[in-house]
Amino acid sequence: MRLNNNYAVVTEDLLKTFGSFIAVDHVSLQVRKGEIFGFLGPNGAGKSTTIRMLCGLLTPTAGRGSVNGLDIATRPEEIRRVIGYMSQKFSLYDDLTAEENIDFFAGMYGVPREQREERKRYALEMANLTERRRAMTRTLSGGWKQRLALGCAILHDPPVLFLDEPTSGVDPIARQAFWDLIREFSKTGHTVFVSTHYMDEAEYCHRVALMYRGKVIALGAPAELKQGLTSHQLYQLDTPDPLAAMRALEGVEGVQSAIFGGGLHVSVAGEGDPSGHIRQALARGGNEIRRLDRIQPSMEDVFVATIEAEEQKAA
C-alpha cells in the first residue's frame, strides 16, 4: 500500500466475511489527519466490524488498510499501542472511583510514570470530572461515564481515536456535551473516527461515510451530500394519519415518502411547485393536511434516499 502522510486511516477494498456472510464489503476510505470522520449507518451495517479491523482486533479476510502508517494485517499490536479506542459498552470498572479508573488505564496504556499526574489532570479537566474524581464509577450517570471513558481513551495522547457508537443510549444533552469534547480534541490535530446510527450527529463531522449492508454507499462532507438531493424537492407533511397519507401518495408520479419520527417527509422529483399535486392526491384519499412546508434535506433524508437508490440498482 502506498502511504500518504496526509492520511491517518486508509483502507483499500477491505473485506471481512464470517462464513458465507459478508460483514464488510470492499470498503475503501482515506481519512485525513485532524479530521472528524463519521461512520454512519443502521445497526448491522458493518461499522463496528470495520473499526475492529482498523484497531487490530480482527484480521481482514482480504484488502488492505493502515492506521497512522501501520499496516493493520501485519502490525496490529503496534496499532493498539498508538490509538485510542472507546466502544459503546464502556470498559470501565464500576467498583473503582473515576480517578482510580484513570490510574488503571494510564498503566495499561504505558503512560510514563513522570507524566501520569499531568495526563490524569488533563483527562479530569477535559471531561469536567475534577469534582467527581473520587465518585464511585457505578454511581455516575451514563453521560458522566461516557466522559470518563473518553478521558481514559486519550490518556496516552493517541494520534488517532476510534469511537464505536459512543453516544448510544445517552440522553441528547449528554450527547451534545460529548461532541463538544470531540471537537476540542480534534482541534489539537488529533484524528477522530467515530461511528453512530444517529444521523443528526453527521453534522458535527468534517466528512462522513454512509454504510449499508457492509458497503459505503455515500462519502463526503454533510453539506455536499445534502446538496446532492437538489434534484428533489422535500416537504414536511403534518397529518393525523401518516400511514394513510403514505398510501395515498403511493404510485403518484415523482413522489417518494418516508416517515421520520413525528412527521412525514415527502420527496418530489423535478422542478416546479408540486404542493398542489400533493394536496390533490391526499384529498382524494380523505387525508387532512394540517401543514405542508418545503424544507431543506437532513442527513436522514440523504441516507434514506441513498438506500432507495441502492435498492433500485439491486432490483
Give a brief outline of the structure.
With 315 residues, this protein is α/β, with parallel strands linked by helices.
Q: Characteristics of this structure?
A:
315 residues; alpha/beta; six-stranded mixed sheet; four-stranded antiparallel sheet; 10 helices; 14 strands; 28% strand
Q: Can you count the helices?
A: 10
Order of helices and strands: EEEHEEHEHHHEHEEEHEHEEHEH
How confident is the prediction overall: mean pLDDT?
89
Tell me the distance between the termini.
35 Å
Strand content: 25-35%
Q: What radius of gyration results from the CA coordinates?
A: 23 Å
Tell me about the largest β-sheet: 6 strands, mixed
Percent range for helical residues? 25-40%
- Regarding quaternary structure, what we see is single chain
Global geometry: globular
| Uncertain ranges | none
- Going across the biggest sheet, name each strand in turn: 6-7-8-3-9-10
Question: In total, how many beta strands?
Answer: 14
Structural class: alpha/beta
Can you walk me through this structure?
This protein has 315 residues and is an alpha/beta fold. It is 34% helix and 28% strand. The chain is built from ten helices and 14 strands. It is globular.
List the helices and strands and how they pair.
Elements: E1 7-18, E2 21-32, E3 36-40, H1 47-54, E4 62-67, E5 70-71, H2 76-82, E6 83-86, H3 98-108, H4 113-126, H5 142-153, E7 160-164, H6 172-187, E8 191-196, E9 207-212, E10 215-220, H7 222-227, E11 232-238, H8 242-249, E12 255-260, E13 263-269, H9 275-284, E14 291-295, H10 299-314
Parallel strand pairs: 3-8, 3-9, 6-7, 7-8
Antiparallel strand pairs: 1-2, 1-4, 4-5, 9-10, 11-13, 11-14, 12-13
Helix pairs in contact: 3-4, 3-5, 4-5, 5-6
